[in-house]
């Protein structure tokens, strides 16, 4: 993996989706922004976030900066192999939280199953749910826009402030509901579509592994040239009513032979 990835990786799902939301609003308001592709990739050593060392106060400022830069550079160059070797003795994270999340979603889906009359309705429900998950990001965006536009927002926690956040969440939901521009909020759009597909299939029960699979798919379909996964997820992605592989122009392969064939075509192109 070190050799194939050159040590690069996508940001964690929460950071990546929050970046998409912030990017969307800043771009819509006419600010100069980098492309999303330039913002969501990082090095493997920072896949779980950025650690910023703060030396004690008695350390001179220029020395502190040199220490911080040195630590950052050293960490940036760390290989995935070295990271794995370092955490080898650490306990494997529990799936309890994912299992609990899956159980909660199943209960909520079952409670509202009678309300769904079409797949389109399922998508709308999931879009609203996804859009409402970014209060923290929307607060940060609003605060930054205050400075840029010279406006004063209502006090945090007030009814007026809540109304602003609800309005911004509604904007996200409307953008996702249109589904016309794959480059806008891609991770959110993909997760919403996959959850809607799962919800519409009354015979399929969500589990913790599905939650991980959906996040893997959201990352790969949005930002990679191809996605190698297992057959059930490929089948879901390629269903005609969502066709995420075509929408995001990312071919999906589900066997080793298919993956090898695809990689060989890349070599032929070069």
What profile does the largest beta sheet have?
2 strands, antiparallel
The helix count comes to 14
Counting DSSP E segments of at least 2 residues, the number of strands comes to: 4
Give, in spatial order, the strands making up the sheet with the most strands: 1-2
Percent in strands: under 5%
Low-pLDDT residue intervals, each spanning 5 or more residues: none
The chain-level mean pLDDT equals: 85
Write a concise keyword list for the protein shown above.
2 domains, 14 helices, single chain, 270 residues, two-stranded parallel sheet, mainly alpha
Structural summary, described in words:
By secondary structure, this protein is mainly alpha-helical. The chain folds into two domains: 2-86, no CATH class; 96-269, no CATH class. 62% of the residues lie in helices and 4% in strands. The strands form two sheets. The chain has a two-stranded antiparallel ribbon. Strands 3-4 form a two-stranded parallel ribbon. The mean pLDDT is 85.
């Amino acid at each position: 993996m070190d050799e194939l990835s050159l040590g690069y990786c996508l940001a964690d799902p929460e950071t990546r989706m929050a970046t998409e939301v912030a990017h969307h609003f800043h771009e819509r308001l006419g600010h100069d922004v980098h492309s999303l592709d330039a913002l969501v990739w990082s090095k493997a050593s920072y896949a779980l976030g950025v650690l910023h060392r703060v030396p004690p106060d008695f350390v001179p400022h220029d020395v502190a900066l040199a220490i911080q830069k040195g630590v950052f550079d050293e960490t940036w160059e760390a290989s995935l192999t070295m990271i794995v070797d370092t955490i080898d003795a650490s306990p494997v994270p529990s799936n309890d939280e994912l299992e609990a999340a899956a159980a909660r979603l199943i209960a909520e889906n079952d409670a509202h199953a009678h309300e769904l009359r079409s797949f389109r309705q399922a998508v709308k429900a999931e879009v609203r749910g996804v859009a409402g998950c970014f209060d923290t990001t929307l607060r940060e965006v609003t605060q930054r826009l205050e400075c840029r536009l010279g406006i004063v927002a209502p006090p945090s926690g007030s009814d007026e402030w809540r109304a602003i956040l609800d309005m911004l969440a509604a904007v996200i939901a409307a953008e996702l509901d249109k589904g016309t521009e794959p480059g806008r909020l891609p991770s959110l759009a993909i997760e919403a579509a996959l959850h809607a597909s799962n919800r519409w299939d009354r015979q399929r029960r969500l589990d913790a592994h599905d939650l991980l699979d959906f996040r893997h798919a959201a990352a790969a379909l949005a930002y990679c040239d191809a996605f190698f996964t297992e057959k059930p997820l490929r089948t879901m992605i390629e269903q005609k009513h969502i066709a995420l592989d075509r929408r995001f122009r990312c071919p999906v392969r589900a066997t080793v032979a298919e993956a090898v064939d695809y990689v060989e075509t890349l070599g032929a192109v070069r």
